[in-house]
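Margin note: ligand = cytidine-5'-monophosphate.
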Amino acid sequence: MSITQQAYAKVNLYLHVCGRRENGYHELDSLIVFAQTGDLLHVEAADRLSLDVVGPMASYIDVSGPDNLVMKAALGLQKLCKTDLGAQITLDKRLPVAAGIGGGSGDAAATLKALCQLWQVFPDPLGLEELALSLGADVPICMKAHANHVGGIGEVITPLPPIPDCWMVLANPMIALSTPSVFKARTGGFTDAAPMGGEYTFATFIKALKERTNDLMAPAVQIAPEIANVLQALSVQPECALTRMSGSGATCFGLFECEKDAQAAEKALQKCYPKWWVSCGKII
Ligand code: C5P
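Resulting structure:
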């Protein structure tokens, strides 16, 4: 038996940093969505656990290191389910790493989901949530893989009414940014939580997003000034309704109401900036 699981790009449409816990983690207020572009994870039954990484971003992944989130997730699930079943895991790595779009977290979540199915194990939901959070603050939302409001350090997930149809173009200048260093570079106070609720049209959705910010953008631009060029390049694309950075960067996004405008922007940016990673997908 073999199973393929998508790990779509996680995007923070806005991100307010509302406080800091004693353990150093920050309290967040964020609307998180997923763009239908991302990594693919294949699992096949095997006697022991092993991992191969293929795809355009494979060379950026440390396959055998102790911090590899896919292997950590697989080992954590074996322990939680008290099983010694194995799996041959293949990660087709297409998203840039350390990019603010939850690549590693999405891969960890996809591993948990795919292996539960492969091994036919049904862990207690609370235990699975705890395992997900122990792997990383974004792993719980990546288990949901669709639009939700996120609070706490990433573990307080509140469902939302359906969001309007939107297309997204993602662009990364291929500069890896470490999340802790971006949080560390943040100066100033905290922003109030301003969760979005209710039903929106595309226009009112954009208006509500424009009233919010990504509080990690200024520190990220300080570390990687090229982010300002990415935002500028996205913002001049015809029909681009909003541009912003996701998470701790450096990936930025442009939002579009129509698929054809998003695809035209994707093509234009790929042509103009061949060294950047540019991809487009519907948001869910
Ligand atoms: O949980 P994860 O390993 O993804 O977090 C990486 C780092 O990002 C943390 O060590 C912390 O410095 C920072 N972080 C934070 N507050 C969050 C999420 C992450 O300060 N809510």
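The pocket of cytidine-5'-monophosphate is lined by residues 24-26, 28, 136-138, 153-154, 179-180, 183 (CB under 6 Å).
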